[in-house]
């Protein structure tokens, strides 16, 4: 909410700069910043167009003579289609500065001298979407004669100074100028002075042309109307228009502008209807039926049974508290007007506005809450403005659809208790003075105070709220500085967090980059990698269809990252994410949050260089990274990789489950070629590890030991074995039969192809034997080596080469 200083001066004295005011208000707990419009503008004056003639060398340019308050009229070439003689316009003189660094200089346009520029509002700083529609494609023309040469800044509010208040949800009372005046006045110990609106008593008649029925009274506690007869709709005055466009509202006509002006002034939205366009002279506030349509200027909105509407007969006039349709829209031909002021349930308004993407200034106020104590007064003020500007002949009495008495809140407190909570020693008079500055009524009975809160501050209910208000206005910066008392607690991470951070550091050490993705996915993405076979968790009110479900895997997010980068020619990628997934067992309402670590690598892991050749990512490169991560878990567990084709979007020949003591703790493999094509990614390998499951594994007991004093003995073993026999099976069997001195086994060669039987492969292993307490003899080594070979022949029918 932008608080205009010039407008604020109508309520309280303002002698401070906007910078000082913004800082002072921020110290009371409402974040504020100064806004000064048009600081770069110079040389803008009122010009009177005395003559217009066609440009001799152009079909669209015109040569204008303009009085700008100097001894002689100046010649200006203008291309605006609406320029005409006897207009009062905005002129940027020679040397004038406009927004975005534009500077105006004398010059010639197709041979004709031009000594300035006749401007449109958008050219002097008013955004095109907020200026009156009639001037959208041309220059701005004043409705009334102005003195030529007069600076235009004050006339058009081009250099208005404002305080931009960042409203918190509980302080919606400052969404109106009057509420803001109370807040800022209290900050400077000034009470605002408001003039109560009054109607011309001679015009008020006992009209009864419109009936109103509120079916959903629980959602509409207040609903009031007034009729205005024989109104002449036209333009609103310039003072009103400039205040509206500086608030980001486009002036439309004298009736709609008056309604919007009251919304900014009081914080109470007002709606207007053309009474003659109603099919029935009756308004009904009710729930819509599924399939009902609201006609808007640019589209139709299909409503459902949760939407609260205002209807006249079969016509839907608008969605309550949000927007009016075009059915009974007020225009320049309207004569009889119906003004509406109401209070609508904030939750209902918020859900409907979000559902149909119709959030605006009115819905924002109803969502946060409006003061039901000023609904009638705000309606009187809107009626007064319409009458003053558009001249109504008759005005109805207030028509009541529903009314709830506005009762102030009464809070009891204790001066000593409030002082104790704040750590101050304010006297009763000081405390009462602060509350009085806020417009609260206070009764004192010894130490006890009874505070009556006006209805505009519906956010207050208990004594703690009084403490906050006294604190704010007294000044947080004035509170005494004290150190906290009590036991100190030692900071640090939990064991589980330390564990996950260690695994994260391993991947960073491997040169991978960490990413952070949204935890919300589309329906297809949760289908793609539901490796846990969990139920899906859908949001009630998702932002978009792409963010409907809580993620059940981190892989879809990583694939999106890969696709995004590769589309921008960044092809060599190595990324990971450490975050939670959401798995919901069948029948469970809330999902379980499980910590996961996932990675994705695509492209080359080594680039071309003068002494190296590029190397593409493969399964075993990624497996090496995963092995490194698993080694840092320090788990007393046997980790295995089990080939699988269970995952539809993973390559069936290059994917494995990761097992710890037979329990699945993750997966590793290559994305399925079709999945890669569908998601526009090159060959990509991924892995996923369940950190929670890894953390639960028993830790190994590590004992230090001295370096071996005796030499090791090695043997190489080459075998021919069927292709379906896994390397892990061979190594496991070697360890099982290699005896107590077998220290290490590594595979150093794999070959399939020429000179090898079909469906067979050649594997070569290096076995290392070591006795830490004595020198091994050839006899001991050969005995163990023979046992290894015999076992392999017997179990796997291998051929020793």
TrEMBL record:
Domain TRNA-binding span(s) in chain numbering: 38-153
Residues that hold Mg(2+) according to the record: 459, 465, 468-469
Main location group: cytoplasm
Annotated keywords: Aminoacyl-tRNA synthetase, ATP-binding, Cytoplasm, Ligase, Magnesium, Metal-binding, Nucleotide-binding, Protein biosynthesis, RNA-binding, tRNA-binding
GO molecular function, a single term: tRNA binding
Cofactor section: Mg(2+)
Domain B5: 406-481
Subcellular location as annotated: Cytoplasm
Cofactor note: Binds 2 magnesium ions per tetramer.
The EC number(s) this enzyme carries: 6.1.1.20
Catalytic activity: tRNA(Phe) + L-phenylalanine + ATP = L-phenylalanyl-tRNA(Phe) + AMP + diphosphate + H(+)
Pfam families listed in its UniProt record: B3_4, B5, FDX-ACB, tRNA_bind, tRNA_synthFbeta
Domain of life: Bacteria
Matching InterPro entries: aa-tRNA-synth_II/BPL/LPL, B3/B4_tRNA-bd, DNA-bd_dom_put_sf, Fdx_antiC-bd, Fdx_antiC-bd_sf, NA-bd_OB-fold, Phe-tRNA-ligase_IIc_bsu, Phe-tRNA-ligase_IIc_bsu_bact
Biological processes, Gene Ontology terms: phenylalanyl-tRNA aminoacylation
GO CC annotation: phenylalanine-tRNA ligase complex
Domain FDX-ACB residues, every copy: 708-801
Protein family membership: Belongs to the phenylalanyl-tRNA synthetase beta subunit family. Type 1 subfamily.
Matches recorded under NCBIfam families: pheT_bact, YtpR
HAMAP family in the cross-refs: Phe_tRNA_synth_beta1
Subunit annotation: Tetramer of two alpha and two beta subunits.
Name recorded for this polypeptide: Phenylalanine--tRNA ligase beta subunit
């Amino acid at each position: 909410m932008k608080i205009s200083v010039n407008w604020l001066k109508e309520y309280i004295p303002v002698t401070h700069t906007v910078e000082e005011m913004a800082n002072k208000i921020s110290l009371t707990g409402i974040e504020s910043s100064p806004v000064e419009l048009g600081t770069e503008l110079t040389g803008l004056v009122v010009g009177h167009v005395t003559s217009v003639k066609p440009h001799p060398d152009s079909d669209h340019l015109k040569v204008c003579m303009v009085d700008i308050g100097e001894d002689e009229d100046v010649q200006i070439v203008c291309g605006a289609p609406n320029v005409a003689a006897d207009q009062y316009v905005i002129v940027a003189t020679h040397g004038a500065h406009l927004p975005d660094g534009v500077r105006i200089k004398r010059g010639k346009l197709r041979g004709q001298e031009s000594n300035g520029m006749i401007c449109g509002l958008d050219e002097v700083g008013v955004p095109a979407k907020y200026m009156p529609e009639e001037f959208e494609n041309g220059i701005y023309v004043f409705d009334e004669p102005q003195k030529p040469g007069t600076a235009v800044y004050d006339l058009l509010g081009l250099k208005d100074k404002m305080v931009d208040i960042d409203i918190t949800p509980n302080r919606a009372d400052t969404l109106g100028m009057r509420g803001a005046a109370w807040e800022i006045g209290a900050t400077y110990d000034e009470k605002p002075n408001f003039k109560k609106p009054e109607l011309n008593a001679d015009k008020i008649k006992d009209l009864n042309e419109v009936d109103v029925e509120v079916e959903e009274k629980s959602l509409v506690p207040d609903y009031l109307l007034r009729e205005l007869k024989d109104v002449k709709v036209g333009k609103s005055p310039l003072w009103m228009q400039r205040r509206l466009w500086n608030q980001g509202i486009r002036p439309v006509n004298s009736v709609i502008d008056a309604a919007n002006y009251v919304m900014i002034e009081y914080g109470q939205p007002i709606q207007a209807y053309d009474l003659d366009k109603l099919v029935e002279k009756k308004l009904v506030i009710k729930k819509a039926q599924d399939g009902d349509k609201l006609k808007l200027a640019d589209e139709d909105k299909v409503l459902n049974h949760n939407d609260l509407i205002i209807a006249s007969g079969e016509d839907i006039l608008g969605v309550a508290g949000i927007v009016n349709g075009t059915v009974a829209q007020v225009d320049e031909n309207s004569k009889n007007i119906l003004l509406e002021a109401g209070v609508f349930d904030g939750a209902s308004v918020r859900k409907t506005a979000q559902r149909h993407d119709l959030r605006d200034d009115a819905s924002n106020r109803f969502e946060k809450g409006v003061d039901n104590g000023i609904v009638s007064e705000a309606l009187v003020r809107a009626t007064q403005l319409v009458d003053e500007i558009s001249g109504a002949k008759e005005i109805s009495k207030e028509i009541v659809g529903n009314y709830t008495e506005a009762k102030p809140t009464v809070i009891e407190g204790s001066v000593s208790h409030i002082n104790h909570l704040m750590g101050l020693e304010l006297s009763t008079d000081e405390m009462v003075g602060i509350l009085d500055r806020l417009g609260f009524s206070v009764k004192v009975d010894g130490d006890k105070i009874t505070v009556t809160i006006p209805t505009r501050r519906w956010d207050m209910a208990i004594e703690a709220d009084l403490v906050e208000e006294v604190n704010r206005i007294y000044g947080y910066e004035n509170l005494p500085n004290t150190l906290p008392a009590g036991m100190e607690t030692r900071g640090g991470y939990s064991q589980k967090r330390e564990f996950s951070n260690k695994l994260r550091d391993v991947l960073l050490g491997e040169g991978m980059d960490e990413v952070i993705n949204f935890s919300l996915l589309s329906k297809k993405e949760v289908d793609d990698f539901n490796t846990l076979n969990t139920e899906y968790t859908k949001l009630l009110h998702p932002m978009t269809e792409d963010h409907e479900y809580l993620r059940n895997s981190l892989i879809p997010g990583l694939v999106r990252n890969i696709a995004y980068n590769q589309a921008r020619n960044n092809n060599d990628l190595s990324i990971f994410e450490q975050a939670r997934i959401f798995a919901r067992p069948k029948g469970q309402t809330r999902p379980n949050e499980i910590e996961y670590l996932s990675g994705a690598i695509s492209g080359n892991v080594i680039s071309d260089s003068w002494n190296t050749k590029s190397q593409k990512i493969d399964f075993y490169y990624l497996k090496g990274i995963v092995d490194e991560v698993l080694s840092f878990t320090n788990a007393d567990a046997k980790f295995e990789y089990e080939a699988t084709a269970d995952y539809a979007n993973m390559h069936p020949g290059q994917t494995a489950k990761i097992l710890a003591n037979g329990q699945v703790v993750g997966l590793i493999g290559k994305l399925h070629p079709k999945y890669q094509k569908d998601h526009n990614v090159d060959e990509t390998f991924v892995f996923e590890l369940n950190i929670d499951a890894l953390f639960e594994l028993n830790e190994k007991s590590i004992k230090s030991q001295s370096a071996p004093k005796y030499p090791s003995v090695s043997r190489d073993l080459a075998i021919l074995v069927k292709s379906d026999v896994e390397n892990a099976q061979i190594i496991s069997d070697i360890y099982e039969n290699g005896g107590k001195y077998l220290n290490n086994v590594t595979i150093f060669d794999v070959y399939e192809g020429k000179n090898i039987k079909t469906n067979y492969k050649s594997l070569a292993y290096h076995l290392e034997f070591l006795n830490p307490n004595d020198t091994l003899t050839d006899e001991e080594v050969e005995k163990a080596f023979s046992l290894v070979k015999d076992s392999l022949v017997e179990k796997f029918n291998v051929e020793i080469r």
